[in-house]
Amino acid sequence: MKDSMRKRVLVATGGGDCPGLNAVIRAIVMRAAKEREWEVVGSINAFDGVLNEPNEIVILDEKEVAGVHIRGGTIIGTTNKGGPFAWPIKNQDGTWGSADRSDEMLRRLQYLGVDAVINIGGDGSQQISQKLFEKGCNIIGVPKTIDNDLSATDFTFGFQTAVQEATTAVDKLMTTAASHNRVFVLEVMGRYAGWIGLHSAVAGGADVCLIPEIPYDIEKVMEKIYSRFTRGRGYAIIVVSEGAKPKDGDMHYEESKEVGYKNVRLGGVASKLIAELKEAGLKTDIRETVLGHLQRGGTPIAYDRILATQFGVEAFEMVLRKEFGKMVAYRHPNIVSVPFEEAISHYNFVNPDSYLVKAARGVGICMGD
To answer: How far apart are CA 105 and CA 144, in angstroms?
Structure first.
C-alpha cells in the first residue's frame, strides 16, 4: 500500500538484459532516497508487472539495491516480448494475436499511485515510451543497448563491457589459432550496427572485420586470409557481426516462433561465412566461435557502472524537474536530455567513412570490400 504522503516513481527495464542495468536502478533509488517525499518501485519484467494479474510491483529501497551495481542482468527482470501496445492474446482458433492494453496500463499506474515512470531500454522500449507520453504518461527514458545503436547518445551503458568480452575472446583465439595454423571466425552481436565487431576487431588486432554496414566480397576476405599464410603456416582471425551480409545478399536469420517476439532471430552467420569460404576454395583449417549472450552477461566494467550511475541520477532529477517526454543521453562530456522523438528518429549505424573504420583499414584490417 502506498503512503499517501509520498510520491512514487516506477522503474521498468525492457528489451534484452545488459551489464549496467542494476547500476542505473541503484542510482535512481539512492538519489530518490535524498528526497523524503519520494519512493521507488519496480515493475517485474518490463511493464508486465503492471499488467499482470495480480500485479508484480516491488518496493526498491536502499537495502534492496545495496551492492547491485556490480551485478549483471537486472534485479527486476526484463522481457523483449509483448508490451502494453502489443500484449499477446490467444484467439479462439488457437492462433496468437495482440491487444492494445496501454489505456488499461495507464489506469493501473494511476491506481498504484505512480506519479512518474522511468523506462530503461533500447530503441523499441523508447518507442513505447514515446507512445505512452503521447497518451499523457509522465515518463522518462534511459538508453540501454549493448549494440550502441541509439543515435541520440554518444554511448550506451553495457556497450563497453560487451566490447571487452569480445576483445578478450579475440585475444584468446589468437593464441590457439597461431598454435594450430588455423583461421578462427568469431561471431559477435550486432543486428544492424557493427559497433561491437568494429571496436573488438581494432582492439584485438583481428585480420578481418565484417559488419552490417559494409557488405563483404568473399574474394576480398580470401585474399586477406591467404596473405596471412606462408608455406601453409600462419593464422587469421575474422570478427563478424551477426547481421553482416555479402554483397548482393541478405543477413542470415530465421523467423522467431516465440509468442510476442517481433524481431527476427539472428545467428549462424559464422557457419554461413565458413561455408562460403570453403566453397570459394579455402583449404586451411577453419573453426567458429559464437559469443552469443556471453556479451550480455557478467559484471559490468567500471566505465559502464559510471555511465549507468550518471544516467540513473539524471533520470530521477528529470522527474523532479518534471522534464517528461525525454530520454537521458551522454554527449561528451555532459549528461543531457533529448526528446523521445529525437532519440528514436534514426538508427546509429557505423559510418563506413568514419575515422575508426579508417583506422581499422590503416592497421591492415580487411573490412570485406
So the answer is: 23
pLDDT digits over 16-59, tens only?
Answer: 899 999 999 999 999 999 998 999 999 999 999 999 999 999 99
Query: How far is Cα 144 from Cα 82, in angstroms, rounded to an integer?
Result: 18
Q: What is the mean pLDDT of residues 108-117?
A: 96
- The residues, ordered by sequence, that sit 6+ positions from 278 with a Cβ below 8 Å of its Cβ are 286
Please give the Cα distance from 138 to 136 (Å, whole number).
6
Buried b (16+ CB within 10 A) or exposed e, 257-284: eeebeeeeebbbbbebbbebbeeeebeb
Q: Which residues contact 57 (CB under 8 A, 6 or more apart)?
A: 10, 41, 42, 43, 44, 49, 50, 112
First vs last C-alpha separation in the chain: 61
pLDDT at 324: 97
Give yes or no: 147 in active site.
yes
Q: Tell how far CA 138 is from the center of its chain.
A: 24
Euclidean distance between CA atoms 33 and 37, whole angstroms: 9
Contact (CB, 8 A) for 219 and 369: no
Angle at the Cα of 226 from the Cα atoms of 224 and 229, rounded to 5 degrees = 120
Q: Which helix (H) or strand (E) holds 206?
A: none
Distance, CA of 91 to CA of 86 (rounded, Å): 14
* Catalytic one of 17, 123, 147, 149: 147
Considering Cα of 35, then 40, then 46, then 52, what sign does the dihedral take?
A: negative
CA separation for the pair 87, 90 (Å, rounded): 10
When pLDDT is cut at 50, 70 and 90, the band that residue 255 belongs to is low
Peptide bond into 143 cis (omega under 30): no
Domains of the chain (ranges plus CATH)?
Answer: 7-157+300-332 (3.40.50.450), 162-295+351-362 (3.40.50.460)
- Output the CA angle 56-308-2, nearest 5 degrees: 30
Q: In whole angstroms, what is the distance from residue 45 CA to residue 83 CA? A: 10
